[in-house]
Amino acid sequence: MALINWDGNLSVNVEEIDQQHKKLIGMINELNDAMRTGRGKDVMGMIINDLNTYTVTHFKTEDGYFTRFGYPDTISHRKEHDSFVQKSSDIKNDFTKGKLAVSIDLMDFLGKWWKNHILVTDKGYSRFLNEKGVR
Ligand SMILES: [Fe+2]
What we know:
The protein is an all-alpha fold. It has 4 helices and no strands. It binds fe (ii) ion. Fe (ii) ion (FE2) binds next to helix 3 and helix 4.
């Protein structure tokens, strides 16, 4: 069962970003399934690595739009991204060192963070970018 289901409510009305969010949600669901089915450390580690890398790529895409169009909430949005990247790389490093296991609590944190970030923080640029002609 998927941890997060994509539906229209999560759309930010920008095709490229919606696609990236779908991919990220897919990776989170993959990690959740891997945890639930007790996959090995190398499989989990690979998913965590990919998730970490893709998260950075995705934030760069969003930031690129902010810079290009002068999004007024860039600073606060960037702050949320930066603190999550820090958290995400801590998770990756702790997992690699064997200091952290992927748990229901961790998945719950990841699922909630993304849902909240997309629904609240990302939705904040929807109209702004649409008005600049970005779809
Ligand atoms: Fe964002």
